[in-house]
Amino acid sequence: MSCKEKIRSVFQKGEGVLHLMPTWVPRGFNEPGRRLRLHPDDYYALGMDRGGICERWLGSLAKALNGPKTGETEGMSYVLEDAATKEQSLLKDYVEELGAELLGDTLMEKYGTWPAFAKLYDYDKPLFHHLHLTEERAQKIGMHGKPEAYYFPRQYNSYLGRFPLTYFGFDPSTTKEEVMECLRNYDIKDNRITELSRAYRIQLGTGWYTPAGVIHAPASVVTYEPQWNSDVNTIMENVTMGEVNPHNLLTDCAPEAEKDDLEAIFAQINWEESTRKDYKEVYFRAPKPLENTQEGLQEAWVAYANEWIAAKEVTVAPGAQVTLTDQACYCALVVQGHGTFGVFECEAPGMLRYGDISGDEYFVSEQAAKKGICIRNTSSYEPLVILQNFANNNPAVPATV
Length: 401
Hints:
Elements: H1 3-13, E1 17-19, E2 23-27, E3 52-58, E4 78-82, E5 87-90, H2 91-98, H3 100-103, H4 105-110, E6 116-121, E7 130-131, H5 135-138, E8 148-151, E9 165-168, H6 176-184, E10 199-201, E11 207-210, E12 216-217, E13 223-228, E14 234-235, E15 239-240, E16 243-244, H7 248-251, H8 262-266, H9 271-274, H10 279-283, E17 284-285, E18 288-289, E19 297-303, E20 310-316, E21 321-324, E22 330-336, E23 338-341, E24 344-347, E25 361-364, H11 366-371, E26 373-377, E27 384-390
Antiparallel strand pairs: 1-25, 2-3, 3-6, 4-5, 6-13, 7-14, 8-11, 8-13, 9-10, 9-12, 11-17, 15-16, 18-19, 19-20, 20-27, 21-26, 22-25, 22-27, 23-24, 23-26
Organism: Candidatus Choladousia intestinavium
Protein name: Mannose-6-phosphate isomerase
């Protein structure tokens, strides 16, 4: 059987749904929060020199930006083709072969690919004050911009880490010269850039939207992050909870001609959005429940009101069987409970070894989403909870806060 024939066979057997393998991503900074349900012995499975596994990427076609030792497909999702043999192929191959059959006409015509993904990130300490490039600036280095949304699932957050507050932007009273002084001190002393910012205590079961260009320092809380298909960062804080961030983290995502130009690096900041007085009013995201249309089914939008990405939380009551219908393709992650998802058995993992098959991650084609996925909660006691992340082609996503 050729690769193309196998792809179409797997797609047909799954009735338009693909079963994905877990994609674990190490980072050379911070330290793992150890809440990703990975076996305690496997957080350094890629080698001590690569750092701990702090992230799991979901429905990803993106390669991680992890330095010179990054694997060729690091960060990229694989489709499980045979559970008995663990045979698998890149999700990217399925997207390229199936095209609109998988993604629908709108995404294929506009982007020619699946342009988004999601992740769970899990750091015991807070992350550094940093920003993600806008599309315009990212294109200068051959990448895409990275707007992103956050949702804080209760199921992964029995422990909130060492600093459950997120800094967003700068206090509106901050001057550009104060920020420039922090950049000039990056290699000299602790620049304490978060002294110019404002922090918000994280509320589980809620979220935020963060536009590209807005500087932020995320909390030590496990975060479900739907985002655009990219991994570009500029880190402007040089010491984070005692850990020194090397100079290259400030300049890695600058064009060669701008790496020594602090004015150009400063210009990556979206100043207007980073200093707006009504930041919480505009970018905080409380869940938006949908009207209940089936017994045992509850749905709520948890990422919405932006032009890039969206996410929904779905809860199926114990013993219930429902049909989940959506207007666009998506990646689904089971975060609690067990049951069936279309033709697949599904379950939230208790503990996974590195390389294990999980039953919690699926990519649903647009056609299958519109037809509806039959979901059955086979537990008598526990709800089945699923997170879905979409790109920007679902007309049902709320447009306003």
